[in-house]
Design goal:
The structure holds two protein chains of two kinds.
Chain A (H helix, E strand, L loop, with lengths): L12 H12 L3 H23 L2 H18 L9 H19 L8 H8 L3 H4 L5 H18 L3 H12 L4 H8 L3 H20 L3
Helix pairs in contact in A: 1-2, 2-3, 2-4, 3-4, 4-8, 4-9, 7-10, 8-10
Chain B lengths: L2 H15 L4 H11 L3 H19 L20 H7 L2 H22 L3 E5 L2 E5 L7 H37 L2 H88 L1
Helix pairs in contact in B: 1-2, 1-3
Classes of the chains: A mainly alpha, B mainly alpha.
Chain lengths: 197, 255
């Protein structure tokens, strides 16, 4: 399983339930505790889905706002994680589908804009770091070529370490569809990432 | 690629997805021990998964706290934020109001007849003239009843008063009334006397004042007459003197 940080450090479930209950009564401070716990995860999900830091930040903020507005509908037996993943993924999928055809966004481009010639500033002792950056960009590029539905499944399976059942619950699609998308997505990633290794 | 390998390579992907049973895992491991092609395939998947880890996670550029919103009044939002039981109660109340509104608009009539309940819509089949007559008759009947009750009450009261007075009480009452009558008559006479005296005094004062004023006026008139007479005498004397002078002048000219 991919070790990227994944889900936030699990806290006392009672504590989280307490914050959820307080948020359902309109307590923004309690909800901000949940934001603090989940914002990194949600932001990185949005970042991998949208490939644009600014848009990912915007989508994260909107996802939390949507979550706060509808938290009264979160049932006691529902998991907050499943619910927040569903909100952010659906929001990102909507954003991706609303993009004009042919729109191509990548963090590779974003990095190039932010640091036009990073290699000139990096000392030879930092070659490994540069290589790591290049490998990372390759991963981003490979993920970029996945269809958004497969990308969402890969995101939940490898980055959020969810089971098939949990993924099906988040995306609200049948288990067989989840597996099909995972196999296809993994095959594409293998072809793209395996070719230069 | 052997067809056996093709089947196992599907299992290799499944192994990285955690989608194999223990038996399938064991069968795959046994095959991998003998097949370099499939081992290579597994290595390729393993490297893919490892590289995915390089995607890493970034720190958030900012915190995504939410703040209380300045909400404009939105009845639907308010409704959606209510608890289920309040929503149900409000919906029931709204339905009831709508039902009454519709009943009013459609002139729904529900009556209980001797034969049972009847429901009808539209205009009432009551004749307004008949209804008016019925109301007037009912009002008159009510008036008559009230009047009869009042007369009965008064008669009862009179009879009770008459019966309750004894002869002595009647005499006492009569003499008391006579005393009151005489006192009132005396008072009236006194008042008349006072009024008469006061009137006489007032009239004599007035007469005196008028007589005094009259005397003053007569005296003033007399003085005026006297002065007028004196001035007339002077004027006449002067005229005579002028005429005399003119006659003398005429006489002299004639001569």
């Amino acid at each position: 399983m991919v070790q990227t940080g994944g889900s936030p450090v699990p806290l006392d479930p009672d504590q989280e339930n307490f914050w959820i209950a307080a948020s359902q009564r309109g307590d923004t401070r309690a909800f901000n505790r949940l934001v603090l716990k989940w914002e990194k995860t949600v932001y990185n999900v949005a970042l991998r889905m949208l490939r644009d830091r600014e848009e990912a930040a915007e989508a994260t903020q909107e996802a939390f706002l949507m979550a706060f507005r509808s938290i009264r509908r979160l049932r006691r037996d529902s998991k907050f994680s499943t619910w927040i993943y569903r909100i952010v993924l659906n929001h990102c999928l909507t954003r991706v589908k609303q993009r004009p055809p042919g729109t191509y966004l990548s963090l590779e481009d974003a990095s190039a804009v932010e640091s036009p010639a990073p290699q000139l500033r990096i000392a030879e002792t930092q070659v490994s770091e540069l290589m790591q950056m290049e490998q990372r960009n390759r991963v981003w590029a490979a993920l970029l070529h996945l269809p958004v539905d497969q990308q969402a499944v890969i995101e939940l399976k490898y980055f959020q370490e969810m089971t098939f059942e949990e993924i099906a619950a988040v995306l609200e699609v049948p288990l067989s569809t989840i597996k099909s998308r995972l196999y296809s997505g993994l095959e594409i990633l293998k072809i793209r990432l395996g070719s230069k290794t | 690629m052997k067809s056996e390998c093709s089947e196992h390579q599907k299992k290799i992907a499944a192994s990285f997805l955690g989608d194999l049973t223990n038996e399938e895992k064991q069968a795959l491991e046994a095959h991998l021990a003998t097949c370099s092609l499939c081992r290579s395939e597994r290595e390729s998947y393993a490297q893919t998964i490892q590289q995915l880890a390089l995607a890493g996670e970034e720190d958030v550029p900012q915190h995504f706290f939410i703040y209380p919103e300045k909400q404009s009044f939105n009845p639907w939002q308010l409704f959606s934020q209510m608890q289920r039981r309040w929503q149900a109660a409000l919906a029931a109340a709204a339905a009831l109001i709508l039902w009454f509104g519709a009943a009013t608009v459609s002139r729904l009539q529900i009556r209980s007849d001797p034969s049972g309940w009847s429901i009808s819509f539209g205009r009432s089949d009551l004749d307004p003239t008949t209804l008016k007559e019925e109301i007037l008759k009912a009002a008159e009947r009510k008036n008559q009843e009230s009047r009869a009750a009042w007369i009965r009450e008064m008669q009862t009261e009179i009879a009770r008063s008459h019966d309750s007075l004894t002869q002595q009480e009647t005499l006492q009452l009569t003499s008391a009334l006579a005393r009151v009558d005489s006192r009132i008559a005396g008072r009236i006479a006194d008042s008349e006397g006072h009024v008469r005296n006061d009137t006489q005094k007032l009239v004599s004062d007035l007469y005196r004042a008028v007589a005094q004023q009259r005397a003053q006026d007569l005296e003033a008139i007399s003085l005026r007459f006297d002065s007028t007479e004196a001035s007339n005498a002077i004027e006449s004397r002067r005229t005579n003197e002028v005429l005399g002078t003119l006659l003398e002048v005429a006489d002299l000219k004639l001569r």
